[in-house]
Amino acid sequence: MLKRIAARVLARRKADPAAATSRARGGFVQSSLAGHSALGLGLGALIYIVCLSGAVAVFADDLSRWEWAGTPETAALAPEVVDQALAAGLARASAQAGGAEKVTGLYGLLPRPDWPHLAVRAYTPAGAVTWRAGADGALADTPSDAWTDFIGEVHMELSLPGVWAGLAVGTVGIALLSLLFSGILAHPRIFRDAFALRLTGARRLGLADLHNRLSVWGLPFHIAITVTGALFALASLMILTVAQVGYKGDLARAYAPLSGAQVAPDAAPQPLPPIALLQAQVADPTPGAARVSRFYYVERPGTKGQRILLDMSRHDGLTQGDRNYFDGEGKLLAPLGFLDGPVGMRVYGASLALHCATYGGLAVRLVYGVLGLALSIVTATGFSIFLARRRDRGRPLPRLERAWAGVTWGVPLAATVSAAFTLVPDLAREAVYLRSFWGLVATLPLLSLAAPTGERASRTLRLLLGGALVLLAGAHAACHGTDLPVAALVIDLVLALAGLGFALSTGLVGRRARTLAAQVTPAP
């Protein structure tokens, strides 16, 4: 009996090898599609948050100028003014923390043409405190946390502590990379149909075309960003493994290539060395190759055992800028080697620049912003396609449709609401940003369950997002009045136009939905 069945199966395969090949290929495609959907279901929301916050974080310098529009801009400050501001920040932090020994780090974000501000940040056991400095080096009366820093932390750490941040974001990066490749395998015609876009007709087909086209057009960018992001996020876990395997658990030796030259701790008092002394030792003598200092960081500031890091960048290629280390007296120890060091360090520095878009200026940031938004749309529409496919097959998931609408439009709405607190000095704190953003991210999908349909939840949240963006832009412009810098005014205009677009899209979608309903529903 079994022999006869096996013989008939074998005879059919011999008679129609093309059909057998087609079945095998179809099974492989279906398996790839099943794996692709499973990954998207499990991590869709986290992937979307990481992608969207990354697209915003690319413009951190530009958004910081918008956020600090009330502080006069200056593209360069005399070294003596910078020294005065850093010393003032150290003194204030020491007084607040109860002693200079309680200040573990001092950070200065230095002015440059594309970010014309000076910020001083001190690290104490109670947390970080940041002050803005004016053109005269005087610090603001009250500290203020940067909202753009918070959004960057959402992207890099998902606001999680310690090693959990790297594990979570690294997992998201690996899942996204898997989705990119499984999506290509699951759609054999994806490159052949690279320019097919059906925006009319069935909703699922339009979403699928948008999803596939954006995936193909931005594929090199998506892969580069995903690979470098996953590696950086998992770096701490990889170093822990290297320390256990190669250095018998000695983390210091494992971190040595990335931590730079060390200085022995010494609590004896020592003034901060002049920044001009540091810059003179790392100036590039080559004509036309001037380097720009981006930031300055001191470990154990105000002591003889302080170690100073001065970042110096140049604009002649794919580079993140080098990290130069000095001892407590300001003597150059060694650069980290991102610019001119070993090949491995230069590749690492270039990978940082490639991921963070710190090369090429505004034009590169704009390209990254567009492609980052495209990747965010790809992640959002991927889950929407799954839900639409279920509905077309007669197995809808209405609650999940409404909740996903709350994720898709709730994340940008939460970011907009948290940004509004930058206009209220007493509320411009990281804790407020954290609670407002993650509180809304968690709450809005639950509130969306009260909507009758996922489409209604989507329209409502888009209307709220559009109104919030317009109000934010208007309130920001009104708050700063005629003192508003051109860069900040441009951002206000972009926010207002985006808000109007979202608000108008609700009417367009509503009319289209009613038109389709009228076409398929017979008149009474």
UniProtKB/TrEMBL annotation:
Taxonomically, which superkingdom? Answer: Bacteria
On whether Lyase is a keyword of this UniProt record, the answer is: no
Q: Where are the transmembrane segments?
A: 38-60, 163-186, 221-243, 366-388, 400-424, 436-454, 461-478, 484-504
Keywords, in A-Z order:
Membrane, Transmembrane, Transmembrane helix
- PANTHER family this protein is in? BLL7967 PROTEIN, IRON-REGULATED INNER MEMBRANE PROTEIN-RELATED
Name-wise, this protein is Putative iron-regulated membrane protein
Q: Which organism is it from?
A: Nitrospirillum amazonense
Q: What is the lineage of its organism?
A: Bacteria, Pseudomonadati, Pseudomonadota, Alphaproteobacteria, Rhodospirillales
